[in-house]
Amino acid sequence: xxxxxxxxxxxxxxxxxxxxVADVGKALFEFPRSLFHVRKTTGFPLLKVKESLxxxxxxxxxxxxxxxxxxxxxxxxxxxxxxxxxxxxxxxxLIKMKMEDEAETLVEELLYKGCSTASELIIKTATRLKENKxxxxxxxxxxxxxxxxxxxxYFIRLKNANTQEQELFAVPTIDLKQLSSIMxxxxxxxxxxxxxxxxxxxxxxxxxxxxxxxxxxxxxxDENTGELMRIFLQQMYIRTSPWVPxxxxxxxxxxKDIVKKQKTHPQLLAFFDQYVNIxxxxxxxxxxxxxxxxxxxxQIEMKKIFTQLTWEIMEQxxxxxxxxxxxxxxxxxxxxxxxxxxxxxxxxxxxxxEVKRITYQLFEENFVLLNELKRSITNSGxxxxxxxxxxxxxxxxxxxxxxSYKTLFNxxxxxxxxxxxxxxxxxxxxxxxxxxxxxxxxxxxxxxxxDIEEMITPPEAEALAKIGKMMKKLNVxxxxxxxxxxxxxxxxxxx
Amino acid sequence: MSKTKAESGESSASSIENVIVQLxxxxxxxxxxxxxxxxxxxxxxxxxxxxxNKLLKSGILELFKDQGVxxxxxxxxxxxxxxxxSDNEEKVVYKIIEEAGTKGIWIRxxxxxxxxxxxxxxxxxxxxETKKYIKAVKSVSASKKKVYMxxxxxxxxxxxxxxxxxxxxxxxxxxxxxxxxCHRFLEEKRETSIKMGxxxxxxxxxxxxxxxxxxxxxxxxxxxKVQLSVNDIxxxxxxxxLDNKAERILNSSGEYLYRAIKTFLPTNGIVSTTCGICxxxxxxxxxxxxxxxxxxxxxxxxxx
Lengths: 495, 304
Description:
heterodimer; A: mainly alpha; 5 domains; 3-stranded antiparallel beta sheet; globular; B: alpha+beta; RNA_pol_Rpc34 (chain B)
């Protein structure tokens, strides 16, 4: 809950659902309100407000609670889920990498709809994919994919008052015959009418987290160690619930068996014990030996890994924002926990004046904090007080998170602004594209088509190319900042 | 009669003086009043106290207090000759500076120890300096802080800063070059050890280097005008560690081993945009003079 978070939410809602929903969202962000209260604050007609609220609820972006009087309800915004919308492209990409294209389209459709019944979702996806395909096999494929998405917990059933815990990931009955007849135009009601499904972000985050850890290990060591880490994580889930800070024991023999079966990394198999050793002996405590039974078993220290990664983000931030010298000082303070200015000067090998300048600059921007220890005044003579620098990571993470929101907001605002500035030219391009497309369908000659396309002058084309490049850069930046936000949120989750 | 008594008194005074000085010379740890009384039991108290006072005044004896007992120590007159022609204040100040040795002493500490006021002390110091008894040395830890020490002493490395300083100026370029070279050495060592093959553990162990290895490499490079010690290299290597380009472990014989390492993360999102590293981020807002729509930093970033 912060100023920029609110502004960012407004922008996200504006982009996806338009101005009315965005304003309703903003009103709810300020504090939870009842329907009439929302209408009063926003000034929209009741119907519109109702519509917006139902959109928000359908996409699981808002929740409501019945008031004591039993007739009115209070609506509340689910902030995390709105921020999650920025991560949707990553979710889709993840599924694409792990499963096949059909699964990707299923996820995509579900994201478009917010929530949906299984039959509805499959029909919708099938209509999209039906070109050049046999409807029967396609439906069967989609059904299987849907079932595997549910069993893998990527989809979760929406809860109502009577939903049992074990029903959340139970595959519903889907009647294929019924589905194909609905697709052919009959208006039967499908068998799973009232069972709605939505995305399970936790499961996606779990995958993103694992990917992050594996990539980090690969970066630091090599391909083989990364693969080892991946298998360790995979084996972790057999005995451990996904979000505990330290995993239960993982027998190393199991991991070795998998490497043997896989046959993709001969180097890893040949020097298996050594790779395990390297991972274990690294100073960052990625895995830790916990038992000697069955050739040794290890624990994965998730929390420590993320603390380490977060430190690295902070160091990078200091490095880019100030200088390599500043990051040197920052790391020194980190290593020593509490350190006196004289000692910093002694160890970082820089002119003392510069050390002072940088340390106090870091202090000014709240990267390091200062603790003054004063002696009691009883003893006479000059009183020496100790000045100690230290870092509070959690506090720094929260500041950085806020900075990330602000950055995102700035980037998105800029994107809107650029679009607005170049509206004329973008509109023209769109018009020309539609016309040429229409003519191509009608079978126009090549000459006619080039005539139409030449309506965009070379300078305009150049400008368009520039805008396109700019938009791409801004979009990439958005996704990258979200990576940072994800990592920092993971740290806070483990904290 | 009274005249002869006075004369005999004087002659006995000089002999007593010799006895006391001899006694003090034999006991470098100092002699107490009791020692003196035992050595010259038949001399009345008021006579030998006068003599002691005279000796103290002329600087042959020094007065100390140890656990409540007054002690007199013999002082070498060869040192005393150096401050000939000085008054009492100068002697006190000289003594304080002498005690500070090669580390020198700050003017404020002299003031506290000598109980002299500032103007007087300044005068004394100036006179001692012109007589070349003492000298002022600029300390590297604080550029404005001068420390005083005896004229013929070589300042301690904590005052001059050792190899990294030239005339109180820290040679940061020199340190930077050394830092880069040390990193290069470790990095090369890592690469060759990977190329040499064998298991990953062997490759890792081969890539460790001790400070003396690096010292040898740096000496052979010949980039340093001054002779660097292994300890100097050790502190340079520590800065490489602090730059997160190397790690340091302790081996079984208590030596530090260094190894080039890589980081976990490639550049992350927040630093790849301008806003994450913007120096005036705090002054930027939607409708302010500095705003994301017209921000020059973003424009520059977008156009390159």
